[in-house]
Design a protein that fits this description.
Blueprint: H1 3-30, H2 34-39, H3 46-58, H4 61-73, H5 75-106, H6 113-120, H7 127-159, H8 163-211, H9 214-222, E1 233-234, E2 239-240, E3 243-244, E4 246-247, E5 250-251, E6 257-258, H10 261-268, H11 278-286, H12 293-322, H13 338-346, H14 349-387, H15 393-415, H16 422-446, H17 452-471, H18 485-502, H19 508-519
Antiparallel strand pairs: 1-6, 2-3, 4-5
Helix pairs in contact: 1-8, 1-14, 3-8, 3-11, 3-12, 3-14, 4-5, 4-12, 4-14, 4-16, 5-10, 5-11, 5-12, 5-19, 6-7, 7-8, 7-14, 7-15, 7-16, 7-17, 8-12, 8-13, 8-14, 8-15, 9-12, 13-14, 14-15, 16-17, 16-18, 17-18
């Protein structure tokens, strides 16, 4: 390892140590009881709620997956994905945040999303809770694996080290501070990481823009790549065994293809996932006062716009800068390293280490949230509510810690399973959670006629449709090749509506709670 690499490692190491210190600091208060450990007793202010929600949402996908898609195929898929997510972010904060914050407290102070569903429908047998916890366990474990994959790709690329060792190292650090500090540690670290992420993106974008010669320079360098800068088209790299071919040092492209209406709708469907993302929804539940939702929304939407716009443009500008150079990124998986390459190129080693820590910030801010949600679902929702109702608070928290250890191990196995595209792994888990929980959240908050059988039907139909569509139906191609979240979300919503009308109306006490939540202020 040369001097530059050592200095870069020092910058990254300083960031990692800071995250562990925050976990130790938060551990002083977070281990008192489950409500403190899993929801920080609803003490989040506007900035903490907004930045921790967005940082936990975006993950390593933001700094590697999204720029990688833009780098490899141009604006088409990357732009419409980002736009769908931006609209979804705004709608989620505008429609869901305040109502969920109030309703979760009215519903017997629910502290997790599965617990909210169970208490919202007065599910005495905890059927909803068990199904929701199981869905969280499956799809969040996949999500955690995607973040650990980010660690491995980052360190193995920069330092030419063994990827397995780096995956294990990154996973261990996240597990330590999450296990020690609980939800408050997750929130505070995510707040810091949210700031690091957006600053890193904007710095790399700014330096890249001037290095590429501004708008005119970028346009000139990309002129020979058909439909690369076409919002309604998509570039088609000439591939052989998944590797883009070159001629005289220049990457080769086919004539490109249309990015039609169906493709745009399918891509923008990413935004639907927000309504069912537990890592974001739990931040709504943790806000100190309902009056703080509006300023939180404004902060979150601005952050989302800046971060995603910068991520897409980094991919586009990166292709302009590397065109014709040796060492180009010639596969979809390798393209996800473009942020790393530009960060190392533009900044001195120690500063580069801090900038590149934005990738770790993105991955850690998501994986810590996912691990805590799975732990809370298994310990609080399944162990305590289903198997041992008289479990002590200490027992619940020990089960949560053991769950984190198990999820960490499973996530490492997912990361090392051979799927090297962060974007594709994340898209599958995002669809599963969005389709299983999203429609039910909307119906639960805004339609009092929603019934318990309909809630069960909606979750099961949404989750199963994602799996079936992705692995069977999508292979038919054509109109069936849409992103699996879109049909699964619609089928889940339809199931809730139809089953609600076919089943008996909710009892009076559930209707009374619904009406109270509509105007409640806390």
């Amino acid at each position: 390892m040369d001097t530059a690499n050592i200095q870069t490692l020092i910058g990254i190491g300083g960031y990692l140590i800071a995250m562990i210190v925050i976990g130790l600091w938060c551990a002083r208060r977070s281990n008192t009881d489950p409500e403190e450990y899993f929801l920080a007793r609803r003490r989040f202010g506007p900035w903490l709620a907004a930045l921790s929600a967005e940082a936990s949402d975006m993950s390593g996908w933001l700094l590697m997956g999204l720029p990688g898609v833009a780098y490899f195929t141009g604006y088409g898929e990357a732009f419409w994905t980002a736009l769908g997510l931006f609209i979804g972010t705004w709608l989620n904060w505008a429609l869901v945040a305040k109502r969920l914050r109030a309703y979760s407290q009215i519903a017997d102070n629910a502290i997790t999303l599965p617990e909210f569903f169970s208490k919202r429908f007065h599910d005495k047998k905890r059927v909803l809770l068990a199904i929701a916890a199981l869905i969280s366990l499956v799809f969040f474990s996949i999500y955690v694996g995607a973040q650990f994959l980010t660690f491995g790709k980052l360190f193995s690329y920069i330092f030419n080290t063994n990827m397995i060792a780096m995956v294990i190292l990154g996973a261990s650090i996240v597990m330590i501070y999450t296990l020690l500090g609980g939800f408050m540690a997750v929130g505070v670290t995510d707040f810091v990481q949210g700031i690091i992420m957006v600053c890193a993106l904007l710095l790399v974008l700014l330096f890249g823009f001037f290095h590429a010669g501004g708008v005119e320079g970028v346009a000139a360098n990309l002129a020979g790549f058909p439909r690369f800068t076409d919002f309604f088209g998509i570039a088609t790299p000439t591939l052989a065994d998944g590797v883009q071919q070159t001629a005289n040092g220049m990457p080769q492209f086919g004539p490109g293809a249309d990015y039609g209406f169906l493709a745009i709708v399918s891509t923008m469907a990413w935004g639907l996932g927000y309504f069912g993302m537990p890592q974001v929804l739990v931040r709504f539940m943790a806000v100190k006062k309902t009056s703080m939702i509006r300023p939180s929304r404004n902060i979150a939407v601005l952050w989302c716009f800046l971060a995603q716009a910068a991520a897409v443009l980094i991919g586009i500008i990166g292709r302009s800068i590397l065109a014709g150079e040796s060492g180009q990124l010639l596969s979809a998986s390798d393209s996800e390293n473009i942020f790393i390459i530009l960060g190392i190129r533009f900044f001195p080693p120690i500063l580069a280490g801090i900038v590149i820590s934005g990738i770790l910030a993105a991955s850690m801010s998501s994986s810590d949230s996912y691990m805590l949600i799975v732990a809370s679902s298994l310990a609080n929702d399944i162990y305590k509510d289903l198997f041992k109702k008289n479990a002590s608070e200490a027992q619940v928290m020990w089960v949560a810690r053991l769950t984190m250890l198990a999820v960490t191990v499973f996530g490492i196995l997912i990361a090392l399973s051979g799927n090297q595209s962060i974007f594709r792994v994340v898209s599958y888990a995002w669809a599963g959670l969005g389709a299983a929980f999203g429609p039910l959240i909307l119906f639960s908050l805004f339609w009092k006629r929603t019934t318990f059988p309909a809630a069960v039907a909606g979750m099961v139909c949404g989750g199963l449709t994602v799996v079936i569509w992705k692995n069977l139906i999508a292979r038919l191609g054509g109109v069936f090749a849409v992103y699996e979240l879109l049909p699964a979300f619609l089928i889940s919503a339809l199931a809730i509506w139809v089953v609600s009308l076919l089943s008996s109306p909710p009892p009076a006490e559930i209707i009374a709670e619904f009406e109270k939540a509509k105007t409640a202020e806390f």
